[in-house]
Structures are given as C-alpha cells and as structure tokens.
Design a protein that fits this description.
The chain is 74% helix and 2% strand. The protein has a two-stranded antiparallel ribbon. The termini are far apart.
Length: 232
C-alpha cells in the first residue's frame, strides 16, 4: 500500500463503532462513532481514578494516595489561576476538566487508538461549550446590558467586527485543536511507512505525548484568556 493510499484510508475510514437501528434517517441508523465510545472510556477512567484517589480521605495523618490527589489538584489549579483572573476563578474546575479530557484524548494514540479529538464533531462541541461559558461569564459579571454594550467597545464603529469575533473564536478553537491532532496523526502514519520501526517509537514521544499535551494546554489557555477578558 502506498503512502497516498494509506492516508486516504485513514482520512476516509468509517468512524462508526456501534450501529444502532432506531428507525430514523434514510438508512434507519443512528450510528455511535468511535470518538463517542472512546470518550466514554476516558470518562470511565477519570471516574475510577477519582473514586480511588478520594476514598478514605482524612484531615490528619493523610495517606500517600491522598497526598498525591491533593498535589495534583493544587498544581492544576495553580496552572490556570492567573489566566482566569479573580472573577473567572469560579470556572477553574470546568477548565481543568476540559484540560484533562483533551490531554487523555490526545494520548490514546499511544496505544493505537484514534484520538477522539481527531473527530471534528468533538472539537466543535468543546469549542461551543467554551464560547457559551465565556459569554455566560460576561453576562454574569456585567449583566445583559453590559454584555451587549461590550460589542460597541472601544467605539461603536467596530461593533460588526466584535460580533464577527464571536463567531471566529469557537472556529479558531476547534480548528486549531482538530488540525494539530489530525496533522500529528498523518505525520506519524508517514513516518511508520517510510522509516524503520524504532524511529516511529521515538517520534511518538513527541507527537503523542509532548504535542498532545501542548495542544490541550493551548485550548484551555485561550479559553481562560477569553474568560478573563470577558469578565474584566
């Protein structure tokens, strides 16, 4: 199989994992994609890990398990505290949940699975949730009137551009994440086909670990900055 054929197979492969016949649509199916199933798996991993780390917590004489859990929470909160600002700090838990989800989604490529973030539906959903939160934070801080007036700042003549920015932000968030994950996957496929086996293993350390974690941080970094800007 040539490189072109392999890339075409990767980009056009059937993303359906569970076909569900519910009698709607032209084919009578409502298909559950791999990205949804993998996301369920990621959420299950998070749930089990949280239950394990938070069981039998104490105030005094804490266990090593509790120490690890508290250290993770403190470090992660410190990661976004300055980005969100004082008013935006109430959204810390949401931001960290998105960070962990995207990070683990990008890392599943290490075990040969297709990252959920390589599905445009997933990245669009994440971007829409973020933009709704950003605008809700602005309304919560400034009121509906203040939110509407923000589109006329610094002067009324830029109102159309400010409204356009409202549509550009989620597009930018979703396409940046989707494009980088897709690009990394394509490059890894090219490396696997073009060079010996140990080279892809080394490249995976960058594309699946470093780059995947960087993209997760960039997504929440931009979301946090937008929230801080909206609530100032």
């Amino acid at each position: 199989m040539s490189i072109g054929e392999r890339l075409n197979e990767l980009l056009t492969e059937d993303k359906t994992m569970i076909p569900v016949n519910i009698g709607i649509g032209p084919e009578g199916f409502f298909n559950i994609n791999k990205s949804v199933v993998y996301s369920w798996g990621i959420m299950l991993v998070f749930l089990i890990l949280c239950i394990f780390l938070t069981s039998n917590m104490r105030i005094h004489n804490i266990s090593k398990k509790q120490l690890i859990a508290e250290t993770i929470v403190v470090k992660l909160r410190g990661l976004v505290a300055d980005l969100l600002g004082s008013f935006g700090s109430r959204y810390t838990e949401y931001i960290l949940t998105v960070l962990l989800y995207i990070a683990l989604s990008n890392l599943v490529g290490v075990v040969g699975l297709v990252p959920p973030t390589m599905d445009l539906n997933v990245t669009v959903g994440l971007a829409l949730m973020s933009i709704v939160l950003i605008e809700a934070a602005s309304i919560s801080k400034n009121g509906a009137g203040g939110w509407l007036k923000s589109f006329t700042k610094p002067i009324w003549i830029v109102t159309p551009m400010n409204i356009l920015e409202l549509a550009i932000r989620p597009l930018s968030l979703c396409m940046r994440l989707f494009g980088n994950v897709l690009g990394a996957t394509v490059i890894m496929e090219l490396i696997k086909m073009a060079v010996p086996m140990f080279i892809p293993a080394l490249a995976s350390l960058y594309f699946d670990f470093f780059d995947g974690l960087i993209q997760a941080y960039v997504f929440i970094f931009l979301t946090s900055l937008y929230i801080k800007e909206a609530t100032e």
